[in-house]
Amino acid sequence: MRCCGRWPKPVPERPQVGYYVHHHGSGHGMRALAIARHLDCDVTLIGSRLPEGSYPANVKGLLLPGDTAPGMHVESFPALHYAPLAVDGLRERMGLLADWMRNAWPCLLVVDVSVEVAMLARLFGVPCVYMRQHGERTDTAHFQAYASASRLLAPYPAAMECSQMPDWVSSKTDHCGWVSRYSGHGRAHVEAEQGSVLVITGQGGTAFTVDSLVAIAVCCPQYRFRVAGPLPSSDLSLPVNLTLLGQLADPLPELLRAEIVVGSAGDNVVAEVAHLGGRLIAIAEQRPFDEQRLQAMQLERLGVALGVDGVPAAQDWPALLKRARHLPGPSAWQALLNDQAAQDAAGIIQATVRSHFGAALSPP
């Protein structure tokens, strides 16, 4: 009798972990790599924008093509966020994800983040740990992803919850705290330079322009502004108290020298400033589901940072910076920090692997 299928592959002794990394901004990738370092199994980071640099021996990358095409038409469905038709990149990336899940079995997929990837994992019978995000994520698609996941992981403190979730979502959620590459570093033996302001323009997009920064610097001559990150080009001449640093491989020295940090209210900037005990003005950029606006409001409500909805007018910055100088700094963040956040996140993922496969994985 002929068999039209393939002979089954030998099942590996130890389950693997796939980690889907969303391409918007750099924070998803940095968080993924920080957590992957503490997973005691083979890990594959999967996405169209993966962290650069060297990986630990147990970690490799699977690069996916982009999921857009010129002139594509995106329809809206209550149960799906993004499912355009006839986009080659989308078809190829879903095929590569499917191939990985089939060939890596037994495996678990961490999804940070995509409702559609989470549903693909469920349809393949692959357990999923889904990363929660801030914002009003009570729509049908999010609830479908939350329900299909084996576990929900919130990479922020429980005190930062800023939307009302049903009990079943809360009971599936583990809060590991902010995950940062600077965890445990603190500000030991580093004195901030009075009047130094570091403005971070992230790779996920920024409302700052060179024109707006010039206007702010002119209105605040007693401060020295240093800007790290990409900005649109401009022909304007810069005032003496404004320096454009461009993209930095490691902003740690600049973060430590700054008396005040100005950046988006996204998880990566917030986590880094929190672990370094800095004074933060969190600018809420336009993001889906009011993600950054709600996080900025919650930071201000807790008294650890100033939360601002969009970039204020230049004439408002002297008063804003004066308020930021009176933030408590390290003492305010301390109660919210978990220096073992990456290790705890890895532990939650490995515990979920064991619950499905009974694998004898060592704790991270």
TrEMBL record:
Domain of life: Bacteria
Protein name per UniProt: Glycosyl transferase family 28 C-terminal domain-containing protein
Species assigned in the record: Pseudomonas coleopterorum
